[in-house]
Amino acid sequence: MNILLLGSGGREHAIAYKIVQSPLCSLLFVAPGNAGTAGCATNVDLKIDNFEAVKAFVLANDVKMVVVGPEAPLVAGIADYFAADESLKNIMVIGPSKEGAELEGSKDFAKAFMQRHEIPTAQYRTFTKDTVEDGIQFLATLKAPYVLKADGLAAGKGVLILPTLEEAQRELRAMLEDAKFGDASSKVVIEEFLSGIELSVFVLTDGHHYLLLPSAKDYKRIGEGDTGLNTGGMGSISPVPFADKTFMKKVEERIVKPTVRGLAKEKISYKGFVFIGLMNVGGDPYVIEYNVRMGDPETESVFPRIKSDVVELFQHTWNGTLNEAVLDVDHRTAACVMMVAGGYPEAYEKGKVISGLDHFALGVDPGMQPIVFHAGTKTNDQGQVVTNGGRVISVTSFAESLPEALLKCYQGANLIQWEDKYMRNDIGQDLLKLMM
Ligand code: AMP
Ligand code: GLY
Question: Largest Cα–Cα distance in the chain?
Fold first, then answer.
């Protein structure tokens, strides 16, 4: 069958890498894709928020499955658009309905959902412009640091953690009264600060049954030792050593099962990924956030560990038969480091020629040598691969142990160069310390 994958990041290259391994896939199209996806699939110049254009492409190219990488088309209702159209309704869309996507699209919706289904999360209250004074007073009843979250999508920037009450009260006004994050902050969730270590848990669900995919840890800050500005993610490790059987059992019983049961009970159509951002607070898991897609760069360490045919898993997801699916996972550790443009996550340049990619020969056992997943790259008019975004390219390696996986990963990453390349050299080091 022909498959269309929407998105252009490292996540999509890693998903594409797995899709094309499936004998069920005839042609894979990626819209818009990057220089990496162009190597394993056909890139299509489509605006993925233009559903009419997606429809025209799907019908013209006999596409039978659409896999949605990022959240924006889901929050905008691409699954509902397909379901409501006579000519599209039998096309398998992997991604939740608009209502399901509210788990990521609205923090207030997500918190209320968790409360209804008794899913452990930080205590919270939601405020609007009309109740800003109540919010100011509520903050005064909490202890520092203060957590403020813009309700809507804010490109990963909508969460503020503030050390003093004065700053928290000032920022609350800026969000509600001065629309600091535009419409996204017309509602603000204020919640209790949770102290612990974070991890990302991934679930594939058909709305009734689920598979627990490998978990991962990502590294959000730009600087080593988790300092500096937040980024989209600078690296990832899968599995997470502290997410042992006991901890994962708690995650499954207290969080995953009630989440899937809650979706079914509320008749929310959900055929896709749930990415649960968790805090391990003294051995107990609490939900920090839901996302309705895979994580990036977590996918770059999670997907290569999946040995099962992902297209078959997606078919089960669409058909509501995930209970019949078998998930086969590589037991080894995968480590991923993301290389970024100098300056990122603030202003950065594009168009720098990337060298060293020829070290990563195609056809070599991917379990043995590093895998390169492109993020912000493109091929220029001279046929050179150049930088085209903040997060540029990543390297994933497998090994029996985390130290070995990291060593191989950095050996690979050091072969790739461009003028202002930057990467963190301490991915995984915190986990190594925890393990000692
Ligand atoms: P989010 O966009 O909800 O993932 O939040 C961004 C980051 O803020 C998270 O990855 C956490 O590191 C942090 N964070 C969010 N909520 C809390 C909380 N209640 N307590 C502590 N840290 C938090
Ligand atoms: N790595 C975090 C995210 O994809 O949101």
Answer: 62
What is the DSSP secondary structure assignment for residue 170, as one 8-state letter? H
Q: Is the pLDDT of residue 183 over 70?
A: yes
Name the one residue in this structure whose structure tokens are 């429809």: 55
| pLDDT band per the 50, 70, 90 thresholds, residue 276 | very high
How many A from CA of 281 to the centre of ligand 2? 20
Give tens-digit pLDDT for 299-322. Answer: 999 999 999 999 999 999 999 999
H/E stretch holding 275 reads strand 272-281
Which alpha helices (DSSP H) does 191-341 contain, by range? 245-251, 257-265, 298-302, 310-319
Ligand with the closest atom to the CA of 280: 1
Q: Is the CB of residue 190 below 6 angstroms from any atom belonging to ligand 1?
A: no
- Spacing of C-alpha 139 from chain mean position: 30
Query: How far out from the chain centre does Cα 344 lie?
Result: 19
* pLDDT given for residue 361 in this prediction: 66
**Residue 105 to residue 179: CA distance in whole angstroms:** 17
Query: What is the 288 CA–ligand 1 centroid distance (Å)?
Result: 6
Gap between the Cα atoms of 266 and 188, Å rounded: 24
